[in-house]
Design goal:
heterodimer; A: 105 residues; 4-stranded antiparallel sheet; two-stranded antiparallel ribbon; globular; B: alpha+beta
Amino acid sequence: MFRSLRRAAVTLAALACLTAPALGSDHFQKPTRLRAGEDFVDTEIGHAAPYIADWDGDGKLDLLVGQFGDGKLRIYKNTGTNKAPEYAAYRYFQIGGKDVKVPTG
Amino acid sequence: MNGDGTKDLITGHYWPGDIFIFYGKSGGGFEAMQNLKDETGRNLNAGGVWKSEQDPDMQSLAAAPYATDFDGDGDFDMLIGNIVGNIVFIENIGDAKTPKFSTKRTQLTAAGAKIEVGGGDSGPVHVDWDKDGKRDLLTGAGDGSVIFFKNIGVETAPKFAKGIALVPALKNQYGSIPVGQQPVRAASRTKVFVVDYNHDGRNDLLVGDYCSIDRPEPKLTPEQIKTRDALRKDRDAVNQEMDKFFEKLGSGDKMTADEEKEMAEISERFSKIYEELSPLEAGTDSHGFVWLYLAKDGVAKK
């Protein structure tokens, strides 16, 4: 993996960028970070990739967050309501009692 | 993906950027991860066939897939973001029960130009952001922006207008946060999800990020300073070892099993030293926060 990452870092630095025009309106409120209990939702080695779905079929929308660390998926159960979600501590997505890991490469 | 009524889960990964699926089981739970394949049986990804392990097709790296019926023919097609920042469309030429992905890759365009977001690392979602009845395209980017491409075509044959930044790009490259400060917005490598989070009739954004926050020099006891200095020596030694290993490896195509083992062994030692050393010195920690961008009350609901 180290070789891949080194290689990619070199190539990435050489890539061109595109700039898009700004929205120019104040569409959003001040952004806030989601929390689970007192703690921020904060994934290992970053690269958080959020998704909202009723994971456990209890009628309430839960928060799923992919992370870079070990290629694991966090499941934050919604213990509040759909209108005012609150999240419990996460657990990792498992199959057969084991954390699922998607290899980096 | 296979029309069996259960929800499946798809994911990409970094290298070589294959697309994987976890098929949902009828009694709940998921089957083990497997590669999605293209019509020729090759592992599905956004790139072409690599010339060698050392010469990747950048199109396939850091794959961020999104399964969606893009062309309105009733089955799940694939939109894939990559390290370059493009969005690659791969048509499902099978049907809703038996997916079959084309070998043809189409670069999505906006206002006539190939989409390539700032700093690479695109991750598309295909949703009706402006609620005009046609699904649009949104993506995060390496530069921390979230770009909205309005669908100015029709629902089943989308055509996208020039991108508009819903979240502006970062001013500093990785959105790094100095010691003692807290982030106030999504940092780099944003991944976006559209949802009416507060159920007020307006679309909101969830934005995941990669955020590095600097950690100050800790106050250490003389004993801890000794430990730190010893660990630093160990770290430098392993670093040198790693450099030698890569030198020896040269540009060979594939690592042998022994080389793989050696690299894993060095990496493990490096990680262990790093873990013990980090709390004893200043440095930078990686975080991945999820930011909620709620639409203001004044925004039209449509």
